[in-house]
Amino acid sequence: MQDRAYAVFEEQQKNRGIDLEHVKSKLKSIEVETPSWGYGDSGTRFKVFKQEGVPRDPFEKFEDAAQVHKLTGICPSVAIHIPWDKVDDYDKLKRHAASLGVRIGAVNPNLFQEDDYIFGSVTNSNPAVRRKATDHLLECVQIARTVGSDALSLWFADGTNYPGQADIRKRKAWMQEALTEMYQAMDPAMRMLIEYKFFEPAFYHTDLADWGMAFNLANKLGPQAQVLVDTGHHPQGTNVEHIVAYLLDEEKLGGFHFNSRKYADDDLIVGSANPYELFLIFYQILEAAADTNAGVRRTADHIAYMIDQSHAIEPKIPAMLRSVLNVQTQYAKALLVNFDEVREAQARQDVLGAEDAVRSAYEIDVTPLLVALREEQGLPADPMKAYLQSGYGESILPRGKGGASW
Amino acid sequence: MQDRAYAVFEEQQKNRGIDLEHVKSKLKSIEVETPSWGYGDSGTRFKVFKQEGVPRDPFEKFEDAAQVHKLTGICPSVAIHIPWDKVDDYDKLKRHAASLGVRIGAVNPNLFQEDDYIFGSVTNSNPAVRRKATDHLLECVQIARTVGSDALSLWFADGTNYPGQADIRKRKAWMQEALTEMYQAMDPAMRMLIEYKFFEPAFYHTDLADWGMAFNLANKLGPQAQVLVDTGHHPQGTNVEHIVAYLLDEEKLGGFHFNSRKYADDDLIVGSANPYELFLIFYQILEAAADTNAGVRRTADHIAYMIDQSHAIEPKIPAMLRSVLNVQTQYAKALLVNFDEVREAQARQDVLGAEDAVRSAYEIDVTPLLVALREEQGLPADPMKAYLQSGYGESILPRGKGGASW
Amino acid sequence: MQDRAYAVFEEQQKNRGIDLEHVKSKLKSIEVETPSWGYGDSGTRFKVFKQEGVPRDPFEKFEDAAQVHKLTGICPSVAIHIPWDKVDDYDKLKRHAASLGVRIGAVNPNLFQEDDYIFGSVTNSNPAVRRKATDHLLECVQIARTVGSDALSLWFADGTNYPGQADIRKRKAWMQEALTEMYQAMDPAMRMLIEYKFFEPAFYHTDLADWGMAFNLANKLGPQAQVLVDTGHHPQGTNVEHIVAYLLDEEKLGGFHFNSRKYADDDLIVGSANPYELFLIFYQILEAAADTNAGVRRTADHIAYMIDQSHAIEPKIPAMLRSVLNVQTQYAKALLVNFDEVREAQARQDVLGAEDAVRSAYEIDVTPLLVALREEQGLPADPMKAYLQSGYGESILPRGKGGASW
Amino acid sequence: MQDRAYAVFEEQQKNRGIDLEHVKSKLKSIEVETPSWGYGDSGTRFKVFKQEGVPRDPFEKFEDAAQVHKLTGICPSVAIHIPWDKVDDYDKLKRHAASLGVRIGAVNPNLFQEDDYIFGSVTNSNPAVRRKATDHLLECVQIARTVGSDALSLWFADGTNYPGQADIRKRKAWMQEALTEMYQAMDPAMRMLIEYKFFEPAFYHTDLADWGMAFNLANKLGPQAQVLVDTGHHPQGTNVEHIVAYLLDEEKLGGFHFNSRKYADDDLIVGSANPYELFLIFYQILEAAADTNAGVRRTADHIAYMIDQSHAIEPKIPAMLRSVLNVQTQYAKALLVNFDEVREAQARQDVLGAEDAVRSAYEIDVTPLLVALREEQGLPADPMKAYLQSGYGESILPRGKGGASW
């Protein structure tokens, strides 16, 4: 059945002018980082539902993450959050990861869970708090160095709840001050990925509220600073793929936190609310990856794809698998866009033709392709089914409830 | 100074054709209920900042609430949340309240903080969970009876996170089933106030998502069921005062949960984000209170005004005071609308004249009026200042951190 | 190629437990009405770009609409707008339609383009204007009778731009009064479809602002009044398929105005912004069509599917074709949902399983199915390609610019 | 009466530590530009209601605008739109303006009303169209030179309606190319004010979609390029005053297009939907105007305040007056903020104290102040009343209907 399905698929793509070997090669090289915290309990302000089997420490988180990589083949790295993943011996954690076939990915400082940060961390008007927060950033640079990570992923909860509560422009200066100090402490090979978010937990203003603020800051800091786009961090009615294209063109797109939302920062399974948006993001990336400008191409080729989701009600590992598979699916579809066809339609200002050239790739079922790819790589044809049949989910139940949460 | 300010104010209002005795009488009779949970710790999914002095039990919550009433004179009742305010001896709580000069207000069931409710409470596909949830509703009716409360205020977190997760229409039927059972258990003098909310904590669909669903359900249940409008529970670009006017006209507006938001359900201090909206809500209410239809008038006169806010970073009692004072301020402004002037402008389709007649009341500074009113009632002219000078805030610090939270 | 593709498709669906004969039969019976005004010029407040070949009168509009039906086989009726499609001899128009293989569909009154309606039509405080507006509604009932249409599709631009501008509740009463008169004039077989919209052209309040207001009004009027859902008429963050399911359950969903939007009421090609939403709407409809309640089933089976879009920059007929094809595609996908699988997953509260059962149908490429279906029906395999090759687009160019617009 | 009211006001402000002479001096020096097109007919895509007495040419527009200045004393300049205000003899228009006591303000190119621009103007993939559009920009520079204007105010409707329709990044380059050419043609004293807007008339992507894109472009162009903030051009849930503060800090805020909105770009009377937002914008500006950084201060002092509204249903001149008065009112309130008090509360991280220090200024009724100011300046105490009694509105009725519109 799969053979026949793939044969039909292959012929269709050949007729569409698609080079399937190229597509497969791209699909084999994409890496999607999963976050250690995505394996722990999470929820809403109303309730965190504790699940059985949730990892109790960073080592167990890596074990779960390794399952996702083992089944999909595209998740070799795991982002860590400090102090959630603080351990005495990072070398041990690094070796543990390696023994599981994965590695430590981006290091994420945490500046929102201590009482001192009630009015901000690096933008707090209290210099002692700013010092403490900046020291934590420096500590994370050191941890990145220790664990061999080249990415520092920064999200700040800093902001205010009421008009007048604080001096917005002073806070802007303090943010720049702290990140400049951090930037200078980074090794040349390290990247600082600056995230932005328009609200939550701050409800009046957030210091880094949108891509423009993150971008301007990254520009001031230097080439090692780039913008991190979290797909759930924009007001309704924002064209996210436009921002992606814009940042690529400025060679300042550093990475993604993928998740999905219908309302606010819902942090749901990637691609579950509006899968077309994810496809259109990849379409912009692939478009830039073929640019005549080498800097743009290089930027497109070095994007850190990371998942950042918060499963409130669904089991953790399968939910992460689902996200990874959805990313892979939409990426595969975007690879099937015939860019020549798009460009020709654009050149003749054929609105419907150009739209059709993009959308029709989205409408293709890429299952035969992905199954073929997995078979070539010795991966299970259906990673979700393989997981459910593996017994792993049951094997971790003895961990009990009360695992790590945030 | 106040004397001269009030003299000027009085003359201005006389010139505008406003009957200040009527205004004062309305201001004396409005009651704004504060919620017991508003005195405890709260926060966002990222962090609950624990504050010193937060009440450790329902009795202490009533003590704090009594301060707000003592200083403002308009907050004689306190809403309770079950099981947060569950006590062995409700009579004792009732007497405690009375001794403090306040009473127990609306009873709020809680159906979102038990593990059983991960997939819903009264709309859970598991009949045992539905039974448990409905039993809790019935328990709350009994508690209302015990404490002499005539209002049951219902908010359901029930909903789903993903398309297909559950049968939306079956859940609709189960909601109706549970509330029918509860309705039948209520005493004739009791009111069921049905709240709605478009998202959070559910991120795909919420069973009671908007006023239309709450309204239709209240219609099916009967005259004792009405709609509760939480001012933060609407999508951006919703005209809340229109909904208020509509529900008044249908004699189905039961009450409010007042709070303020710029983004989602931010639950900030009432009137802090867009005070004009609060004024316009009161304008619609006063307009309905003068209707020729007795049912509409009665509805407008029996609205349960309740505050429902969640202070993440500011001290609890002053934040509650600020909300109450903001409600009072906007209500006072709305009372200064010259309705004849509005109606005459409307009758001649004078858009700018009608708008001006409403807005110009909003622009009046009602401080002299409120100070005069407070002096007449033996209340402090500036309740916030009086609170800060009272020493009460310091006196409760020995409660320590670690008080009640949700 | 198509043969092999269909063979694979057929086997896949068989394996998934899908009855393809049933699917095809449903696909053959769906009807999608196109609007006469969709063939004319339209645009934004900034500019209407006049296109060559646009129909100059209702007769030419029907000719264009007939092309769409000829190529797709599912668009046998055409909605008309009065007075845009006013003709001296409706019988002639009816015969013209019949001669083209189509018929006249819903009759749409127009109450927003005369100077008299600057402050509202049926909700205008001026009784003479209300009378005039109501008379137009009655005229449209008569036209429907004349042309043999059984649907009156009502959209009101009525609303206000400023707080205080008008008495919201009086306008509510006037709306009910006018529609009651219209309702009473309708023949028993006629349906009144009541549309709602939250803003534009009114920017403060719109008299029929949301589904709840349209629904309540339809309830008061009687069984022949139902709600019309325009997919672009909701605030951001509204779950449209939830509203669809709700109205189906209440047996009050009458029809759709399909179009697509990313921002406000953008009126773009159906399914071009978020095709998944359209699929999920059909999923809810098919779910209701299999309900145990006969009234719900009947409602689901009698939905009037209508397109209402406004092409500003793209050629009219191909844009309409694209919309129709996108509707057909998403409907076909929804027909491939294995409802038993969904229900079983729901029954065991398997969130990921249930979500997967729905989403996986969406991911299927239905091209082989639709091509097979078209071949069975003697329709072109690719209607868009057939249109472009037909020469029809060129043949109408002599109409010149300056055709009908709104 | 006014004397006593002002005496009370004066004493209150003295007690609050406000220097009223400073306040008055600031109020005397603010200038609010009105737009020529604001005096003509306008509307929505559904209908432009033609009003009697609307100006028939640029000369009459200036006559109407002069009324607004005569009555308020703060509107000495009038923005023009090319080609709407194209005249053969600009010197004559300039002299006409001078004879009326006003002058020509910002020059606004129009690149959205010609058929050539259906797929964009300066970002059109057709080089001939880009050339034409750029030539129009250069023409406007020349007109600015001719009429002695130092501001070119740029808004582009350019964007796309569908994914794939055009190459987003190429269009970005073309935008920069055209504006570079224009920038180089400007005189040293001229400013280019770059506006942004997230949607409408483009519904998929807009080339200059947000402040970040306008800001980045202005940065690339040079010091004479700055950002223009239109208060209605942001997604819901955007903190506009934060953007204002940010741009001030970067010395890149050039000006405003003031108007008011509840939904999308409603273009209503300034301050009619959420007056508090306007106040908070002025609060940020005044805060920056007192900065230690001279560049920030200078930026704050050179903001071009311009009104850009589109009255669909209300009479033009009174609507413009209302907007100007609302701007003046909110500016006056912001001048009453005691900045020392705010800063002290901020310094001790007193959230409620800081919020109160800002909000309490907003709650002050500034009528006595504005009346006193007007009396000092020989202006009518109530400009709106003075206008209505002036007979001007009646005097222009003979112009008839059918005046200028856009």
From TrEMBL, chains A, B, C, D:
Pfam families per record: AP_endonuc_2
Protein EC: 5.3.1.14
Domain Xylose isomerase-like TIM barrel: 88-266
Swiss-Prot/TrEMBL GO biological process terms: L-lyxose metabolic process; rhamnose catabolic process
Keyword Transferase attached: no
Highest taxon of source: Bacteria
NCBIfam families: RhaI_grampos (TIGR02635)
The protein, known as: L-rhamnose isomerase
Species of origin: Paenibacillus piri
Gene: rhaI
